[in-house]
From TrEMBL, chain A:
GO terms for biological process, alphabetical: endoplasmic reticulum to Golgi vesicle-mediated transport
Any one Gene Ontology cellular component term annotated for this protein: trans-Golgi network
Protein name stated in the entry: Trafficking protein particle complex 6A
Leader peptide range in chain numbering: none
Coiled coil: none
Xref: InterPro entries: NO_sig/Golgi_transp_ligand-bd (IPR024096), TRAPP_component (IPR007194), TRAPPC6/Trs33 (IPR037992)
Principal location: Golgi
Name of the gene: TRAPPC6A
Annotated compartments: Golgi apparatus, cis-Golgi network
Pfam families assigned to the protein according to its UniProt record, in alphabetical order: TRAPP (PF04051)
TrEMBL record, chain B:
Organism: Chelydra serpentina
Keywords of the record: Cytoplasm, Endoplasmic reticulum, ER-Golgi transport, Golgi apparatus, Transport
GO cellular component: endoplasmic reticulum; Golgi apparatus; perinuclear region of cytoplasm
GO BP, one annotated term: endoplasmic reticulum to Golgi vesicle-mediated transport
Domain of life: Eukaryota
Taxonomic classification: Eukaryota, Metazoa, Chordata, Craniata, Vertebrata
Subcellular location, record wording: Cytoplasm, Perinuclear region; Endoplasmic reticulum; Golgi apparatus
The name this protein goes by in its record: Trafficking protein particle complex subunit 2-like protein
């Protein structure tokens, strides 16, 4: 039941990500490579949606990226203790879809997962599929 | 004036293609199809050269005896192809550029429509109206 709901949220995020990435990349010069696309996500897309940039971007240079937002907007209204740690992933499903949709529109198939270890810091892991 | 305008998906199938007259339509479809090769060539050349290769507008793809074909590619690898009448030499590069900008804006609006699935053919009336006005405009 919960899975279906989260899946639907992610689907909505996916569609929004596609449209948003189309609108935001209208004026930007074409991207050189994968890393360029991820940087665009961390800066322009994140600022447009969450009013701030991603705080940390890590990669293993083999298609896996980790985006860390230390003060994730959607979690900022919940208390910082352990109380809502279990509920937190529900708030991240839409964003996972958003990232996935934006990447898909720019030509990269990916899987995106998210985790929250300490509120309100959230980490999104992006794995780009090799075609 | 533009006689034919086409929007091609990144997988190289047409999302939208409209010609000004219904006779000779097949010829325009064919012209657009052959111009895709030139587009792909330019895109792959862009990937290798590093000099000022950040433009989305591809410019004149190739001239035939009656027509000139122009191309434009978005960051999501959707291509716009415009076939213009050669007899109208008053059509300058920056006018074509601005026509492509309008096309791109309308395409973005179509993309953001939640009832539109990316990859489907474009059936939007607003898009149709914009394209028709572009084909009439430069007469």
């Amino acid at each position: 039941e919960q899975e279906k709901g989260l899946g639907a949220l992610e689907g909505v995020g996916f569609r929004v990500g596609q449209g948003l990435s189309e609108r935001l990349t209208k004026e930007t010069p074409s991207f050189k490579d994968e890393l360029d696309v991820l940087k665009f996500l961390c800066k322009d897309l994140w600022v447009t949606v969450f009013k701030k940039q991603v705080d940390n971007l890590r990669t293993n240079h083999q298609g896996t990226y980790m985006l860390q937002d230390d003060h994730f907007l959607l979690l900022s209204q919940l208390s910082n203790g352990k109380q809502y740690l279990e509920e937190a992933p529900k708030f991240l499903a839409f964003t996972c879809g958003l990232v996935k949709g934006a990447l898909s529109n720019l030509g990269f198939d990916s899987t995106v997962t998210a985790e929250v270890l300490v509120m309100p810091c959230s980490k999104f892991q992006v794995v780009i599929q090799k075609s | 004036m533009a006689v034919c305008i086409a929007v091609i998906a990144k997988e190289n199938y047409p999302l939208y293609i409209q010609s000004i007259t219904t006779e000779n339509e097949l010829k325009f479809h064919y012209t657009v199809h052959t111009s895709l090769d030139v587009v792909d060539e330019k895109i792959s050349a862009m990937g290798k050269a590093l000099v000022d290769q950040r433009e989305l507008y591809l410019g004149l793809l190739y001239p035939t005896e009656d027509y000139k074909v122009y191309g434009y590619v978005t960051n999501s690898k959707v291509k716009f192809v415009m076939v213009a009448d050669s007899s109208n030499t008053a059509l300058r590069d920056n006018e074509i550029h601005s026509m492509f900008q309008k096309l791109h804006n309308s395409y973005i609006d179509v993309m953001c429509n939640p009832f539109y699935n990316p990859g489907d053919c474009i059936h939007s009336r607003a898009f149709d109206n914009m394209v028709t006005s572009m084909m009439m405009q430069v007469c």
